Automatic annotation (TrEMBL):
This is VOC family protein. The keyword Metal-binding applies. Gene3D superfamilies: 2,3-Dihydroxybiphenyl 1,2-Dioxygenase, domain 1. Keywords: Metal-binding. The keyword Cell inner membrane does not apply.
Length: 283
């Protein structure tokens, strides 16, 4: 999992808005298998290892349901340490009969898709060894084919599922955006990512350090899609981690050169991509 540590830039945490915190917590604890690290009357921070927050959920005042055809979260993706871990999690999902939205073999990884009770998209996946990924002209080869569920379940046999493994990390995030040209400029010339895959004119995947993707970006909700309202269920922000203060300072300078606004809140730098997706810039 060297793609999610220095010298790379990566996503470490996703901050969500939900309609009802008490209704959501059983899903995140009992179905997804995360633990509550800290909780208040309207927020909860969730972890796999008891130390690092992967997902935070909050219940906004006067919250409204998730709005369709807007920019924002497509899914956040939790990367499990091994294929066997993914097999055990799949067995758990089947045992509790939680509805799944899909399961795919992407060549570079194997993935299972679902959503929380408010429709916030979630992927759980395991990577294949990077030595097995194929690259052509600077782009990584990916596909969406049927997952071999029987093989995956067999891989997980012999050990009971006991919650999300401690080594689980935020593998990537996939976002709905309103267009791709300015978005690509923001993420590459501003934040320093490289494009590693393009899907026609509708989606692109970007990363640092030649990962298959740290961030996915698509216009599947429509070119020109607006941001959701502030009190809508969905993503509040996500956290991007830089390898050093020097690297973050360089990125802040690049954003300034593009005319992108950056604000400071309680010691954290905050910016937004051209579609209004809010990003916390941390070290």
């Amino acid at each position: 999992m060297g793609f999610h540590r220095e010298p790379n830039t990566f996503v470490s945490q996703v901050n969500l808005k939900v309609a009802n915190l008490e209704r959501s917590l059983p899903f995140y604890k009992e179905v997804l298998g995360l633990q509550v690290l800290h909780q208040t009357s309207n927020t909860a921070e969730l972890t796999a290892d008891g130390k690092n927050v992967l997902v935070s959920i909050q219940q906004p005042d006067e919250v409204v349901s998730k709005q369709g055809r807007t920019t924002g979260l497509y899914h956040f993706a939790l990367l499990l340490p091994t294929r066997a871990d993914l097999g055990r999690l799949l067995k758990h999902f089947l045992q509790v009969r939680y509805p799944l939205q899909g399961a795919s073999d992407h060549l570079v990884s194997e993935a299972i898709y679902l959503a929380d009770l408010d429709g916030n998209g979630i992927e759980v996946y395991a990577d294949r060894p990077a030595s097995n990924w194929s690259w052509n002209n600077g782009e990584v080869e990916m596909a969406t084919v049927a997952l071999d569920a029987e093989s995956l379940l067999a891989e997980g046999e012999g050990e009971a599922w006991n919650g999300m493994p401690a080594g689980t990390i935020m593998g990537h995030i996939h976002l709905h955006v309103s267009e791709l040209q300015k978005t690509e400029e923001f993420y590459t010339k501003g934040l320093g990512f490289e494009v590693v895959t393009r899907y026609g004119g509708q989606a692109l995947f970007i990363s640092t350090g030649k990962y298959h993707h740290h961030i996915g970006l698509n216009t599947w909700n429509g070119v020109g899609a607006p941001p959701a309202t502030e009190n809508s269920v969905g993503m509040e922000s996500y956290t991007m981690v830089f390898p050093s203060e020097e690297k973050r300072a360089q990125i802040l300078s690049q954003l300034q050169g593009l005319g992108v606004a950056v604000t400071e809140e309680k010691g954290a730098f905050i910016t937004e991509d051209p579609s209004g997706n809010r990003i916390r810039l941390e070290v």
